[in-house]
Design brief:
With 696 residues, the chain is an alpha/beta fold. A nine-stranded mixed sheet has the order 18-26-24-23-19-20-21-27-28, sandwiched between helices. Strands 10, 11, 12, 13, 15, 16, 17 and 22 form an eight-stranded mixed sheet that branches.
């Protein structure tokens, strides 16, 4: 339906978020290795963006089955993306240079364009001959010959040279260029090599430059004209048209082809001469639309591996996970959860409590069955180990494995096979849907006195992944509430193929009642305002893209509902419009990745708070199984409201998003500076120290 509402373009909104990540690298108040970390994260994010989103637009253009309108939209999207990325790349290399100067001030020198000092040249030469040269495979290239395949996300050097002139060669004859391509052997040597320390100063060098410095030894008989870095990004998305039949077999076939997908980006050193670039593009059939300017160094996500010879003084001190006294003092997590719901905050509090919960289920003789979803798990996962233990102890263990979790497909296949071998029942993906819910249920034997048996459930905004739980900010609930557990059981019944019993009491579940209930709650706030009461909504999520939900928020704003959005990534809602005057968008980027989804509705003082696995994206609300669960305990609910308030008070790391999609840092006159993630840690720590709660 046509309306006058505006929406930001999804891809440009995401690029605005990634630019905010880059701005962290510009923050001089951060230790230099924290700034380097954000340079790396920005590059890694952009790589995935090209492998998925840009590749998707390219696919629309290249395949002939789409309408002219769709092709035009894809072309316009790519044009807008390339303009914005080019702008950001200029900013990236400016900030990169600033960070390198900050590194210099710490007596750590990363050689770049300058010639290495004399005391390093012998080391570089020896290192090249002993550690690098045996693994190089240079290939001469020329138009019309069989072309070398350029692999996805690998760093290559392209070299231009001439044969060394014979004595009788006239200087009037123009040189005849020869070209070669050579993959940097990233699996055999580090990207950044530590050189010998000298007079208390530390030196490093990109492996690219070590190779460049020794090119004459690789190409004897040639005079090296120039050498530049290139890389290609390819379509890494996996789309299976028919998900019926043997999905595992189909997925394995697709995984083998991931690295040879269609080209989505050709990135090159901006200093490469135009005629050199033209030769490379012509030889490898690269379209001008695929070109993206880079700098001298590409694949700068590798900065995450930059050696730190000084140590902790150049990094941010880690926040030690807070211990929860009443859980530490008990021998049984179940005993605590029987008495009350337990709300956990990762990484502020330890993820060990989930492992203890699952381990107790694996060994408790009263436990009959364990059911859990798997979307992304850590390598050598402690979570998987507890499930294997449960199966070995005679429990019936069922794991729903989402094979289509992007970039984790192979890991999920491996862990599924291991669990299957341990006797665990594995349920694979639902055709046409992704299961993104993060839930588990523990079913126990009923007591002999006929009382209702006490089962347990775990519901979370984040994955069962102890690795990401150290850097992703998420919330989780341990509960024995019978109504919540009945709802979780209904979710697993759906995953097992039974869709008839979907009368959820508390849970909101995408594909069933989530969207209607959310629209109803937004409409309820409008009704309260029309009755002269207060209407307020706070929505924290990673992405807001679904147009129907945005329209509902616009209508609520037009009717006077106060709306606070805390959206880390994509946000297609446009603020500062006549219909969005009551909506404010806050973006938080800091040391932890804001990952929790929290939905607050004032409800005329009868506050409702939901935690969820779902963003308000089209895919989450329409093509996934997601869950949102209410926080029923008033103490836990108030705790979450307090944390939302802290985030909205942030005047250090928070940005407002304006009508031009700019990240406008929130600066106010308040002498008290609030950095939300640090303040949340102190809040939880202080609450733990002052409540004096015990296990009982």
């Amino acid at each position: 339906m046509d309306n006058s509402y505006r929406y930001f373009k999804r891809d440009i909104s995401w690029l605005s978020f990634n630019y905010r990540v880059l701005l962290e690298a510009e923050d001089e108040s951060l230790p230099v290795f924290e700034r380097i970390k954000f340079l790396s994260i920005y590059s890694s994010n952009l790589e995935e963006f090209y492998e998925i989103r840009v590749a998707d637009h390219r696919g629309v253009i290249l395949k002939k089955k789409y309408s002219d309108e769709s092709i035009t939209e894809a072309e316009e999207a790519l044009d807008a993306i390339n303009r914005e990325v080019s702008r950001q790349q200029n900013e990236y290399y400016r900030i990169f240079s600033e960070v390198m100067r900050a590194l210099d001030r710490q007596n750590i020198y990363l050689y770049q364009t300058e010639t290495p000092l004399g005391f390093h040249r012998e080391f570089i030469h020896t290192y090249f001959n002993e550690e690098v040269f045996p693994f190089l495979q240079p290939v001469m290239i020329s138009k019309g010959d069989i072309r070398t395949f350029i692999r996805d996300n690998r760093l290559y050097l392209v070299i231009r040279m001439t044969k060394k002139a014979h004595k009788n060669t006239s200087w009037l004859v123009p040189p005849e260029y020869q070209y070669a391509i050579m993959k940097i052997p990233y699996a055999k040597v580090p990207r950044i090599v530590e050189l010998p320390e000298h007079e208390g100063k530390y030196y490093m060098m990109f492996i690219d430059d070590i190779i460049k410095a020794n090119l004459p030894e690789i190409f004897p008989g040639y005079a090296i004209d120039s050498c530049y870095s290139i890389k290609i990004s390819r379509d890494a998305d996996i789309y299976i048209e028919d998900e019926t039949g043997n999905l595992v077999e189909k997925l394995l076939k697709k995984l083998k082809k991931r690295k040879i997908g269609a080209l989505s980006r050709f990135m090159y050193d901006r200093n490469m001469p135009a005629d050199f670039l033209a030769f490379i593009c012509d030889t490898f059939s690269i379209s001008p639309d695929d070109l993206v300017l880079g700098g001298r160094y590409l694949n700068l996500q590798d900065l995450a591996k930059l050696p730190n010879p000084v140590g902790k003084s150049l990094t941010a001190p880690p926040l030690t996970p807070i211990r929860v006294n009443y859980l530490d003092e008990t021998v049984s997590v179940f005993r605590v959860v029987k008495k009350k719901d337990v709300l956990l905050h990762f990484p502020y509090q330890s993820f060990d409590y989930l492992i203890r919960f699952l381990m107790e289920a694996a060994f408790d003789p009263k436990v009959e069955e364990i059911k859990i979803t798997q979307y992304r798990v850590a390598e050598n996962s402690a979570v998987i180990n507890t499930l294997v233990s449960g199966a070995q102890n005679g429990k019936k263990v069922t794991v729903f494995v989402e094979l289509k979790a992007r970039f984790d497909e192979e890991q999920n296949l491996l862990t599924a096979e291991r669990m299957k071998n341990a006797g665990i029942k594995i349920i694979y993906s639902i055709p046409g849907l992704k299961v993104h819910a993060k839930v588990a249920v523990i079913l126990r034997k009923g007591p002999k006195d006929g009382k209702r048996k006490r089962n347990f459930a775990y519901l979370s905004t984040g994955n069962f992944n102890e690795k990401t739980a150290r850097i992703y900010s998420d919330m989780a609930l341990l509960t024995s509430d019978p109504a919540l557990i009945d709802d979780v059981n209904r979710v697993f019944s759906i995953l097992e193929g039974h869709r008839e019993n979907t009368g959820f009491t508390h849970l909101l579940v995408a594909q069933f009642n989530m969207v209607p209930c959310l629209l109803e709650k937004i409409e309820r706030e409008i009704t309260h305002v029309k009755a002269g009461k207060k209407g307020r909504i706070i929505l924290k999520m990673n992405g807001l893209h679904d147009q129907a939900m945005i329209d509902a928020l616009y209508r609520a704003s037009e009717n006077g509902v106060e709306i606070e959005l805390i959206v880390r990534g994509i946000c297609c809602l446009v603020p500062e419009q006549p219909y969005s005057q009551n909506i404010r968008i806050t973006r938080l980027v800091d040391m932890f990745l804001e990952h929790a989804r929290v939905w607050y509705f004032h409800n005329d003082g009868q506050e409702e708070v939901y935690l969820s696995s779902a963003d308000w994206m089209k895919r989450n609300l329409n093509r996934r199984i997601e869950t949102a669960f209410p926080v029923l305990d008033p103490v836990n609910r108030q705790e979450i409201v307090d944390l939302l308030d802290i985030q909205l008070r942030d005047n250090t790391k928070a940005c407002f998003i304006d009508a031009r999609l700019r990240n406008c840092f929130k600066r106010d006159d308040n002498p008290v500076k609030t950095r939300a993630q640090v303040a949340i840690y102190e809040y939880l720590k202080r609450k733990q120290e002052t409540t004096g709660e015990t296990a009982g």
